[in-house]
Amino acid sequence: MDKNTVIGFLLIGVVLFAFTWLNQPSPEQVEAQRRYQDSIARVEYIRQVEQQIQEQQAALEEDDSLQHLPDSAKNVQLQHTYGVFAGVMEGEEETVTLENDLLEVRISTKGGRLEYARLKEYVTHDSLPLILFQGKESKLDFTLVTATNRVVNTADMFFTPVKGNDPNSVTMRLNIGQGSYLDFAYTLEPNDYMLQYTIQGHGLNGILSPSVNTLDLTWEQDIRQQEKGRKYEDQHTALYYKFLADDVEKLSEGKDQSEKVSNRLKWIAYKDKFFAAVLISRDGFEATTLDSKLVSTPGYLKRFKTIASVPFDLKGEEPASLTYYLGPNQYTLLKAYDKGAEAGQELDLEELVPMSFSFLRIINQYFILPIFDFLGKYFTSYGLIIFLLTLIVKLVLFPLTYKSYMSSAKMRVLRPQVEAINEKYPGQDKAMERQKATMELYSRAGASPMAGCLPMLLQFPILIALYNLFPSAIELRQQSFLWAHDLSTYDAVIHWDAQIPLISTYLGNHLSLFCLLMTAVNIVYTKFNMDMTNTGQQQMPGMKMMMYMMPLMFLFFFNQSASALSYYFLVSTLISIAQTLSFRFVINEEKLLAKLEANKKKPAKKSGFMKRLEEAQRQQQETLRKQQQQKNRKK
Questions:
Q1: DSSP conformation letters of 313-382
Q2: Do 260 and 370 lie in a common domain?
Q3: Is 106 within the bounds of a domain?
């Protein structure tokens, strides 16, 4: 091997070493990859554990003679299946009630689980007590691995209630024997929707596997239908979750979806249109699998399921701390739970209130809701509050509305001159000349066709923001106004049972009165506005029909939505008509025309934009002229 070959191999080695060293993963990347692999392994482990538990339960259910066995034989069977936990596998199920002014909950001795939650200040759409869940509709179970590698589940075990001095606190104790026990402690604070929930063991060394440092949990709940109108309640029912120090996300409302999350989560929420059951972990959920399924069972909307792990101290020195939030999705209430929280430690529970996306959410968050809260201090009727809100919005936009009307008025008084231009340059082949002459007229007179569009563009985001907020604003729930018994849902005056193709799908099986009035008024306003803004210019084919189609489209959009939204749009349109009539009465169009004629005599001041626009038009006309000359030569 010659010298050059040796040097070549050494250089290759140096390059490989440098490449490996420069591309080695950072400690953060290594840790992220480790967590990802651990989460995959844990998900598979949990799946195997669940399968073992199901096999155990199936075996016991098939053995009908177990209940008829003598006690000694039964104990032998239980000891064989459950080991040291055999003594807690039999008992009588009882419940312990905790309640304050807002919330009533019941804790079952079987599984030591929360099995009932009722919100005292709310009722369902048909005036029944508002129960989030009851009995088998919800369960939170923990899987335990014993020192002898048996797999057991707390759902099958009977706890003993231990009451203290606090009437709103109870400890469900799983007495394993010989001084070993597992405590599930529940505490309901006064005047709060939060239920504190801690898990702590004592003397579990030698009982549970020494490798145990987390508890694997399974949380399931069937979401009840609480409101009138299943379709829109279903659209606002979803499984939400928040990363430990990051954003809030959710699973799809409209289809079955399952998601495996490797990063730690701060909380998981089972949310319907106006209420939520949220499970919060102080130390975070790990290796989480989230599942959302649509159901067709009458009275229920969806079925949610979570499989996750929470840190657990086997020595019992530090309890695992969880918290239930069982209450309404009210923005100000949920936002208040972050008061005094350190930066990055906020719960962000207010994200459960859907208020549209990004900048439209800002409109609701910093404009609409503060007005709602302020007016709500002085008025009890939300119909009146929405009316005042509409007036405030119109007042804020009044300068732009006035400017828009003045722009339309200028173009309207110039209409005879525009018609004269149309006669001077007839036909499609003179469209460029006609358009140029019209724009020159507007420019010399000081009229701007685009100025009338601005108020419409500014009102549209507000309308979209309200479209997202009103159906989910709990402030409007069961608030009556005029004939509408609930402003948060539709105010049907006509019903039918037959399923009409397309009509029933998009319009529903009813007609809402506020929506019908809104549609009728908007059709009238469209006709009125088109007559007011007729400038004499030729319109695109079909444009007039499109203007009339828009109110009819709103009928389909709003008929099944909140009547508050149709009412707002109705009032807004009526105010717009009143403003237009008052403007026309106040403004002297003859004086306006004289002013425009005076403007035409002044030296024209062209902006840089107008100069560029005219230059572009000149070049386009020159190009068309040359093309026409070439065609003539060919002929």
A1: -TTSSS-EEEEEEEEE--HHHHHHTTTTPPTT----GGGGS---SHHHHHHIIIIIHHHHHHHHTT-S-H
A2: no
A3: yes
